[in-house]
Every structure is written in structure tokens, then in C-alpha cells.
Design goal:
This protein is of the alpha+beta class and 461 residues long. The protein has 2 domains: 2-256 and 309-396, no CATH class; 400-459, Nucleic acid-binding proteins (OB fold (Dihydrolipoamide Acetyltransferase, E2P)), CATH 2.40.50.140. The chain is built from 12 helices and 19 strands. The protein has helices at residues 10-21, 30-39, 88-91, 97-105, 121-127, 181-195, 224-246, 260-272, 283-288, 295-307, 341-354, 361-397; strands at residues 2-3, 48-49, 57-59, 68-75, 78-86, 109-111, 114-116, 136-145, 151-161, 166-168, 204-211, 214-220, 251-255, 311-315, 404-413, 416-421, 427-430, 440-449, 454-459. Strands 2-9-8-5-4 form a 5-stranded mixed sheet. The chain has a 5-stranded antiparallel sheet with strand order 17-16-15-18-19. A hairpin with a 2-residue loop joins strand 15 (404-413) and strand 16 (416-421). Helix 1 (10-21) packs antiparallel against helix 12. The protein starts with a strand and ends with a strand.
């Protein structure tokens, strides 16, 4: 973590400029707000009463748009995960102003000084959010997790739930969670290992709000509680994907393996970092042995993430098995409908097929349109994230022009060198040659412009 000294408020001005450049919505149209206020008053009429079930949520401490709540019970040797997902479709009608605006946005956009939500706060942080301040409508997916980590969707129902606790990643205790929470995560992780999945997350470079108008730039490693929480979403999304595929419908998240050229480059990077990657070991096997707490290993994890073509959405197609290489499975997004438009439709389709009903035509039609909408929204989110980090790096370094920094080469490609400063959470490009991944460098900061979000280094040695 590096706190940003910014007496001239360059970061504040830069964030305003980013919002303008990328046309980040700063409010909802009046008709959308009015529709949301009316929808928030709806009382559930098609929901079973599950308020006695001990649901809890687990999220970042500051989150208020809570998509998921969970409880776990034993069924012989199996575990039954009851995963409650915000019933957004109860509040949003097809073609109403809220729906039209959500299709325009696609996803929630996050910036350090606030987010631009997919839905108005009266829904996303109020009536539809699974907060522990009262009963909420939800869709409960029951997923059977066998002792070997295999998963199967057992059922889906609309229900009223009452969360008993809003738990936070950085302060949750084992006794706060269902008794088999860690066991479920272990089963899912062991199943991932057996099928060669590569769901390993490196530290993320991000700009975080520190309070009182202050911000910090950091590489944020994932906590164990986050990984265990992600295992529940993974189990649910895999079980739902299998159920949808079996019924010849659905929208799936897919990602290809890095190609041979990319893997060859990654092997060179690993060797340059002094790491052993046996010839008979797959990329997934190698990646699972990496420690994100070690700088060089974290650097190669970031290189692995960049080596793939990225994930995308595809609708069901006869004779095609949608495959997500990092998951090593067929996979769908269904567990974050407050933040992703596509999830609302996957939830609706799953609720239908699990109860022997046909998928509504409007949902099937949406599956054909959503890949383009979600690709545009995902690309915008990525551009904004990169712009924010570039801005923060420039703000942090603006007083250091002319200074020399130690750095390490993390990747070399046709555009030049990508390097990471050793003492600061900064990743930058360098116009040089004759170096390889893992090489140590000394670089001089020759130009900084927070307004242009640019930092320029030149090689010293």
C-alpha cells in the first residue's frame, strides 16, 4: 500500500475527467428512479417462507449491494449449499424503464470515489439487496456437493429469507460461518485440482479509498475468506451451467486456453524468474504451485492472466460444449444479478427449468443479445480500471521526476517491456530491448503528467 500525497487534488480532477471521458453515468433518469421507487414497494406473493433458515452474507466490509446469502447443511456424506441470490427480476419487469436502463449500462462500474450502479440504489442497496435489516425476496439454489467436490443442482425456488449477519472478508471468524463452510471450499478446490482448473487469482493493482478523501495505490492479495466464498459461487455457477446445458438453453461464460506461443513465452518467463516448471506439467499445475505473496511469483501470475484471450459470453448452441479453461468446466454467471445484467436472465432460466417450466421467450431471446451488451460493458469497465490506476501512478510519482528506481522485467512482447517497480505498486512500460523477463533494471522517471495519466521511464542500467 502506498498512500497518495495529493495536495493539489490532481486525483480528484482526474477522476472527474475519467468519468467524463468514459461517459460514466452520474445519476439515473427521473423515470427510472420513479419506477424503482414504485418497484421497491412490491410485496412478494410467489415466495416460500424461509426466514427461519440461518443465512449470512460475506462481502467486502463496505459493500451494500449484496447479491448472495448462504447456509449449508449435511445430507449424509454430501453437503447441501443453499445459495440465496437477490431476486432482481421480482422488482424489474421486461421493458420497463429500469430494464431499459440496465440494458444500456450492462454492469455496475466501480471507481474509487463511487460506483455507477446497474440499478438505482433504492433497489440495489435497499429492497433487493440481501441486507440483514429485514426479510428480502430471493431465489434459493440448492446445490449438492459430493465428497469428491462434484456438484449438482437439486432445486430452485423463490423464497423470503432473512440474513442473520453481514460478514466481512477482513474480519470474519470461523465461528461466524456455517459449520461446513471450510469443508465445502476444500471439496471444490480438490475437484478443481483433479480437473486441472487454473482458478488462481494474483494480487490486484487497485486504487482504494482510505477515508477522509484520501486514497492509496496497492497490490491487494486475496484473502482466504474471499477464496472460500468464491468456491460457493463457483459450485453454484457450475451446477447451473450443467443444468442449463442439459435442457438446451442458457448463457455461458467461456474462455480459451493460452495458445502454444503464449505458453512458450510463459515458460521462458518462469525460467528467467528461477522457477522450476517441469516439461510434463500443465500451465494449471504450475500456477497452482505459485505463492501470490512472493513478488516474483505474483509477477508471473499477472503474466499468466494477461496471456489468455479473456473471457466472453456465448448462448447455448446444439453440439457445442461451452468451456471455461480457467474453471476447467462448463460455467455460467448467475450469482451477481445486482451488478451484472446477464445474471438476471440466467437466474430466470434456471428457476424455470428447475421447476419443470419452459424458459420464457423473452429470456431465450435475451441470451442471443446479451453477449454483445456484456462485452461492451466489460470492455468499458476494464478501460476505466486501467485509467484509474494510470492516474494514481502519475499522482503518486509526480514529485519524483528525475529519480532512479529499481525495477524487474515481468514481460517482453512486440511492444517492448513491461516492468514492475520494486519499491512501489507501479507497473509500467519501457522502451528498451536486450532484456528478458526476470531481469533487474534501474530506470529513471523522465516525465510525469497526472492530467494525461502518463509516466515515462528510461533505462539507466
Amino acid at each position: 500500500m502506498k498512500a497518495l500525497a495529493d495536495p493539489a487534488n490532481a486525483l480528484g480532477r482526474g477522476l472527474v475527467a475519467i468519468r467524463s471521458e468514459f461517459q460514466v453515468p452520474d445519476a439515473f433518469p427521473a423515470n427510472v428512479l420513479a419506477a424503482a421507487e414504485a418497484a421497491a414497494k412490491r410485496r412478494p406473493t410467489e415466495h416460500a417462507d424461509r426466514t427461519s433458515w440461518p443465512f449470512v452474507t460475506l462481502d467486502p466490509a463496505q459493500s451494500t449491494d449484496l447479491d448472495q446469502a448462504f447456509t449449508i447443511e449435511r445430507s449424509g456424506a454430501d453437503l447441501l449449499l443453499h445459495y440465496a441470490i437477490a431476486d432482481v427480476a421480482w422488482f424489474v419487469d421486461d421493458g420497463d424503464p429500469i430494464d431499459v436502463e440496465a440494458w444500456r449500462r450492462g454492469t455496475t462500474l466501480y471507481l474509487p470515489d463511487g460506483k455507477a450502479g446497474l440499478y438505482p440504489p433504492v433497489l440495489s442497496e435497499g429492497a433487493a439487496s440481501l441486507l440483514p435489516d429485514g426479510p428480502r425476496p430471493a431465489v434459493i439454489f440448492t446445490v449438492r456437493v459430493a465428497i469428491d467436490g462434484s456438484v449438482r443442482l437439486e432445486g430452485a425456488e423463490r423464497a423470503i429469507i432473512r440474513s442473520t449477519a453481514k460478514l466481512a472478508y477482513d474480519r470474519v471468524r470461523a465461528e461466524d460461518l456455517p459449520a461446513d463452510f471450510a469443508e465445502l471450499a476444500t471439496r471444490i478446490e480438490m475437484a478443481e485440482d483433479r480437473r486441472g482448473a487454473a482458478r488462481v487469482d494474483p494480487p490486484e493493482q487497485e486504487v482504494a479509498a482510505l477515508g477522509n478523501g484520501r486514497f492509496g495505490l496497492l497490490f491487494r492479495p486475496r484473502l482466504k475468506s474471499e477464496d472460500n466464498n468464491a468456491a460457493m459461487s463457483l459450485a453454484t455457477n457450475m451446477a447451473i451451467a450443467d443444468a442449463l446445458q442439459a435442457q438446451h438453453t442458457g448463457l455461458f461464460r467461456v474462455m480459451a486456453e493460452p495458445d502454444e506461443r503464449a505458453i512458450k513465452r510463459l515458460r521462458i518467463t518462469a525460467r528467467a524468474f528461477g522457477m522450476t516448471w517441469p516439461e510434463n506439467a500443465t500451465l494449471a499445475q504450475f500456477e497452482h504451485g505459485l505463492d501470490p505473496g512472493q513478488p516474483r511469483e505474483a509477477a508471473i501470475m499477472l503474466a499468466i492472466r494477461r496471456a489468455g484471450a479473456g473471457a466472453s459470453y456465448v448462448p447455448y448452441r446444439d453440439g457445442v460444449v461451452p468451456w471455461h479453461a480457467a474453471m476447467g468446466a462448463t460455467y455460467a454467471h448467475s450469482t451477481a444479478p445486482l451488478r451484472r445484467l446477464a445474471d438476471r436472465y440466467v437466474v430466470r432460466a434456471t428457476l424455470a427449468i428447475a421447476n419443470g417450466h419452459p424458459v420464457p421467450d423473452v429470456v431465450s431471446e435475451a441470451f442471443g443479445k446479451l453477449p454483445k451488451v456484456m462485452a461492451r460493458a466489460d470492455a468499458l469497465g476494464g478501460q476505466i480500471e486501467r485509467a484509474v490506476v494510470d492516474l494514481a501512478e502519475a499522482v503518486m510519482l509526480q514529485a519524483d521526476e528525475g529519480k532512479i528506481f529499481p525495477a524487474i522485467v515481468t514481460d517482453v512482447d512486440e511492444r517492448g517491456v513491461r516492468m514492475q517497480l520494486r519499491d512501489l505498486p507501479v507497473v509500467a512500460r519501457l522502451a528498451t530491448n536486450g532484456v528478458a523477463p526476470g531481469d533487474d533494471l534501474s530506470v529513471k522517471l523522465t516525465a510525469v503528467s497526472p492530467d494525461q495519466r502518463v509516466v515515462i521511464f528510461e533505462r539507466v542500467s
